[in-house]
Amino acid sequence: MGFVAALLLGGAGRAGEVWSADVGLSAGTPVDVVPWGERASWSEGRDLGVWWEDPRDIERVVVTFAGAPPDPTTVRLEWWHSRWPEHRIPRDQPAGAGESGWGHLGDLYQGEWREADVYLQAAGRTWTYTFRHVNLREFPELRDFNAEYRTTLKLRLLFDGPAPAVERLAAYTDSVWRQTTVEIEWGGVHPGQVWDGRLEVFNGYVDRLSPLELREPAVIASDGSWRSTTQAKASGVQARFWYAESPNVNTFDGTVATLRAPAASFSFEPVQVAGGSNILAPTLSVAVVPAEDAALRMAARMGLAAPRQALLQSRLAAQVTRVVPGEGIPPERSLYDRVTFQPEQTLARALAEQPPKPGRIYLPLGTEGGRQRFGVNPDGSVFCVNDRIDQPRGRDTARRRWGAQRLDYDFALPEGEPLKRWIEDECLPILHTQWERDGIRYTQTAFVTRLDPGGLGFPDMRADDTAVLMVKVHGQNIASEYRLAHATLSLRADGRPLPVTMRKGRLYAQHPDGDRLRAAVEVQGSVTGTVEDGVVHFAGHMPPGTDGHMVLRIPFITLEEEQELQRLEDLEYVAEFRRVKAFWKGRADASTQITTPIAELNNFYRAHVSHLLINCGREVGADRMGARVGSFSYGVFGNESCMMITDLDRRGLHAEAARCLEMFLHYQGTVALPGDYLSKEGVFNGAGGWEQGGYNQHHGWILWAMAEHYWYTGDRAWLRRNASALMAACAWIAHERDRTRELTGRRAIERGLLPPGSLEDIGDWRNWLSNNVFSWWGMQAVARALEDVEHPQAAALREEAEAYRRDILAAFEEASVRAPLVPLRDGTWVPQIPSEVHRRGRTFGWITATLEGPIYLLRTGLLAPDHPLAVPILQDYEDNLYLSDRYGYSWEKHGAQWFSRGGISMQPNLLCSPHPYFLRDEIKHFLRAYFNAFAACYYPDTQMLCEHPLPDLGDWRGDHYKSSDEANSAYWLRLMFIEDDRGDDVLRLGDGVAAGVAGRRGSPDD
């Protein structure tokens, strides 16, 4: 049926009246999906088959040979095994958010051909294949999954010799054909709109067209196209569609109708109209409604000449009415519009209207540049983990000797919520926690120092230097009589109890090959530890008003030499406390300061300095640093690492930023990006073994951060020294996208884009929007920087970046046309932009749809802030993604508090949700998104932001410090006061200052 199985099937109607075609369908019959795939051969003429842009659930394959069929024993039916059946999208319910950040669909590149386990029914030249249970022979390990279909992107018949001629190949799914008639009206607003057009149908057909009886009727041609120019009057057609209906709620068989015309092109789903939806798109001046719409038929009986025009015009009038602040919220507004009628958001309101946070987060503690880190839990227990200690190997690798990957130290401090928990000066990485039990007030203080003499930061502190966690537990009798103070010290290795013993103030763990030192213990007074059942008990009676303490010095590695053990015991608590406090205070003082009337913002911004420096680990044996985005399990993710690096630059910590960038420069071209790429030459991804994720967007982000470093430092010598590396990185983009320029058929939409690759945590190789947007972003940023130093190739690079921008826009504007309009909460519909160029609509999971969606077109400047698609993008996010059972937080649960719980994703401080509003000078929207994201993740007792408020708002999940997300929040706070990175050489001061921060908002002339 051709590329999109267009409705133009050859017509019998007369121009201006009715066009019709016989598609040979009847209601309830199965859907053959081959017409919407592309025929192909993969084995030098020995096979014939079909591939689809998205997987199909194939239940039956029918082939009719043109001549005598071959011997059945020489033919194999094969399907492409990529992700399914090991990874499956649910069929009986929508794929939810939160717990299902993405859905692996598979791709055309990662997988293998697999012979299908089938029944064959041969009847002359026609063979019919049906599938046996998938777990019978193909996947016997999947005992609870016995599907009699195959979910696949490719299907083929493989022959022993050259493939014979085939008259017809059909592949049937569980979908069946249904019929509906809709009426499409356009115009009615502006004069001189040209609506000459046609319909295309994907996964369906149209078999009848007739003009609507309006004042300016369309003239329908014999090929099914029409002519229509409207002069502030409405025109349109009635169309009868055959659409696919499936019991699978997440099917890819959905029928999409696309109207193409000079005035506007758009798509819709006939099934939605069949279900009673009125698709009203005022920004496009179009309406699509059921032909049997009762209200319209009533209007016709009342004598209205153009009932649909009246309906559309009234709807348009309601939507174009200018919003006047202070006049109340009109009914049926989108969330995007409703923000205008609310008072400016404040942090106090955002915090108050968030769900309560039932738990607290552990606090990471470490040194600047070291890779040995500890965590302190809310119950006072502490832990250390083997994360990137074994590789790259260092002096600490062989000396860890834990007998496990994680050690936990428990003090049996009072159960339940601490009385109080805070960090030193509300911003330094020294943790205090306080409890009360039986008249004793227990206060625990914890911080990390180093075993050896020397400075606590660069250049003295090396990656594999020994870190020591100092823990003091102080007890005070606040009762009026004697009380028993006690603590119990125990150890777990990977969750299993690890017996301990005490000898001369040293705590040893008992292992089959001997005891290993785990801590030096100092107890005030005559209290001694009693070992019983592998744990140590400390107890003592305290008179009223007296106090006592215990100090543990816990080395990260296993110390064995007496000289080291003595040095550990000589670490004097008070002196080390003062030393560590002075160091971190000095680092905070040396960094940029932001001071506001809001203590929470001040404390967090200042605390984040230590979070950055603790997570930026020094490379073993080198000065280079890896910007790790989490303290315990996350490594160097190029995209998020660059959020940290640019924050270092914004804070004036340029040397630290340069050492982080040097990691990428040194290892350029060493680690490939996962995708259909020919080369890794020039690729920014490698980080000396600390690289992680393989996100294809890493490369573009790193390029951008390199350019930003130049603008923040003005270091022309640095840029010239590294120009060849940056040019090589840009050349990789140019060379790879050269490979897609001449694509044809279904892949023509990929022209000029990077070849398919993985996205974020989604391993499917596809043409993702964000991968291309960020690659362009980095290329154009480097071109602009090189122009500033008069690099001879800068102009050519600028031209390449602009050509890339045009290709991205062309591809995703077409993808937007092919994707169905989506409804807003005001009853109108707007265009959407898919996250992947081949998707006709949403993909699965909040990460793919929300976190990696089209908002980045605005953030990066690829789309101008006032582009016609800008508002629909933001409206779609606000109404359909941020608060959504499939792509965000539940509307049913949080919709009543939409103002303070909306405007954010499920990783609120990673997605750039506030930034596009700032670029559009929509400061109310910007402040709401910024404060809501901060409030959803903020934990004041540790001055840190959680990574994910999951499984729901109020909860937390992730690796912390999540310094990349925190860096974004710090950046958005800075934007309130200063913004200088739009590439227009304009410095903007105070554009985003909140009334609650500054007391007033400056005028444009201030």
Summarize the structure.
This protein is an alpha+beta fold and 1006 residues long. It is 26% helix and 26% strand. It is built from 23 helices and 48 strands.
Name the average pLDDT.
91
Helix content: 25-40%
Output the structural class. alpha+beta
Number of helices: 23
Low-confidence stretches: 1-15, 297-330, 999-1006
The fraction of residues in strands falls at 25-35%
Ends apart, CA distance between termini: 63 Å
What does this entry look like structurally?
With about 1000 residues, the chain is an alpha+beta fold. The strands form 12 sheets. Strands 1, 2, 5, 8, 9, 11, 14, 18, 21 and 22 form a 10-stranded antiparallel β-sheet that branches. Strands 23, 24, 25, 26, 31, 32, 36 and 37 form an 8-stranded antiparallel β-sheet that branches. An 8-stranded antiparallel β-sheet has the order 27-28-29-30-38-35-34-33, with helices on one face. A hairpin with a 2-residue loop joins β41 and β42 (about 760-765). The longest helix has 25 residues, at about 795-820. The two termini are about 65 Å apart. Residues about 1-15, about 295-330 and about 1000-1005 have low confidence and may be disordered.
